[in-house]
Amino acid sequence: MNATQAANYSAAGQPAALSGIKLVAATLALGMGSFMNILDLTIVNVAVPTMAGDFAVSPTQATWIITSYSVAEAIMLPLAGYLAGRFGAVRSFVAATLLFTLASLLCAMSVTFSMLLAARVLQGVFGASMIPLSQTLLTAIYPPHKRGLALGIWAMTTVIAPIVGPLAGGWLTDNTSWHWIFLVNLPVGLLVGISVSLMLGHRDALQPGKRDQKMDWVGLSLLIVGIGSLQILLDKGNELDWFNSATIITLAALAAVALLVFVVWELDDPAPLVDLRLFTQRNFMVGTVCLLFGSMAFFGVVVIIPLWLQTFQGYTSLWAGKTVAFGGILAFIMGPIIGANINRVDARAIATFGFIVFALVGFWSANFTPDIDYWSVALSRLFMGIGISCFFLPLVTIGLSGLPAERIAAASGLTNFMRNLGASFGTAITTWLWTSNASEYHARLVENIHPYNPVANDYLDQLHQLGMPDDTAYAYLENMITTQSYTLATDQILMISAALMLSLVTLIWWAKPPFVASRGDAH
């Protein structure tokens, strides 16, 4: 070993933490990598109506552009631990970033809806390892007493990216075209991949990993079939009338059998794809379950609000993005502060505060009306940012607490797997609830339009006095009822998300302190 290599070791024989400008540069590169990856979960949200028009599909069908990415990424996330051990964390992160960038180019070049969905699946498959490996590498390059700050910076990217996404997507869609939503990844991806390779490449040489580790192909196949079938079921259920459809019944049976066999197989496999035994650790179980349902509540709102604003409130993509982006302001400010102080305050208390704030804002927002003004919606998103910034990092901290260093990569992959499942399932379930509830509200409201309702007759008379013939008046009334129906459905989604988040307050206190890394993680 030469002097340069020796300098890269800590006293414990592990790769040494970085310092100074190297630490700053590496933090920026790794943070931008995870930011870019998570950004692609939501950057297409405000472009969904535009893309639906370009490809001649319905807006609800176009949401598959979101779910195809998130579910593909979720399925491949558990591979992070295997890839880090087999090829090295740095090599795996760099390869994932460059392949993700290539898939982004394919998305931008798509000329059919099917081609775009396939390219989005590739984005999810290739980029899945970026998030857990960026988290793993960030904690490795920081000294132990500053790991809370490292996790705070990482958590800030996971919180802000879903908020910045609609703003960036709206500006690009209105001022260029939706293709640029994917093209902007090219320079960032190349810069991140090259920078991390140059700055951290030596760490794989110092930690060659388990080169003889075998791939659990059976587990991966069962996971693909199980989660894939379940996601298709959620996406297509409303369109096919749920369990009145043989296709939905088949998908449900396939998902149930595949996931059940997957659990049995993984528990029996000495080198499983997904280390389900992590769920025997109380803190990991509590943290990941809260993260799953919290992500469902959070991403469901992030998807529905821009869709409602553009489709029924007359907002452009940019203005819908501006509205949602307010949620990132306080999250951006509070993220590093919470990270730097996470070891000084009970993580359960911080998470509880976040859950309660999110719920209170959700209940307040559930009173939106069709004539709601811009600032009322924007301010609700601003205060929502407080809740968002206060539950992602504490949940990750609780989930990883007490785990030895060799299990962090696998645990991080499984944690992010649950977060992505929450995002994909939350998007699909919320979209279904939104459209089905709107149809139900529409039917109820239309029942009141009849010759024996004096209120309806008076309103129609007013429209006639404005010069509208019968057909135009009824069309105007129909449009108003549709807008009101989807507004009521949006309010209901906000109410459900708030209640779901509030229900997690009891569960989070089942976690047991201290919420720190294992002593074995001392490098």
List the main descriptive attributes of the protein structure presented here:
mainly alpha; globular; disordered N terminus; disordered C terminus; Growth Hormone, Chain: A; 23 helices; 0% strand; 2 domains; 523 residues; single chain
Question: What is shown here, in short?
Answer:
By secondary structure, this protein is an all-alpha fold. It is 76% helix and 0% strand.
Your description of this structure?
This protein has helices at residues 3-7, 20-42, 48-55, 59-62, 64-76, 79-87, 89-108, 113-127, 130-141, 147-175, 180-183, 185-206, 217-236, 246-268, 282-312, 317-325, 327-341, 347-365, 374-389, 392-400, 405-446, 454-465, 470-508. With 523 residues, the chain is mainly α. The two termini are 19 Å apart.
User: What is the average per-residue confidence, as pLDDT, rounded to a whole number?
Assistant: 81
What is the CATH homology-level superfamily of the largest domain?
MFS general substrate transporter like domains
What is the 3D shape? Answer: globular
Helix percentage: over 70%
Annotated CATH topology of the largest domain: Growth Hormone, Chain: A
Low-confidence stretches: 1-13, 517-523
Helix/strand-derived category reads mainly alpha
Q: Give the end-to-end Cα distance, rounded to a whole number of Å.
A: 19 Å
Order of helices and strands: HHHHHHHHHHHHHHHHHHHHHHH
Q: CATH top level of the largest domain?
A: Mainly Alpha
| Strand coverage percent | under 5%
Question: Number of domains in the coordinates?
Answer: 2
Radius of gyration: 24 Å
- Largest beta-sheet details: none
Number of strands: 0
* Architecture per CATH nomenclature, i.e. the level-2 architecture of the largest domain: Up-down Bundle
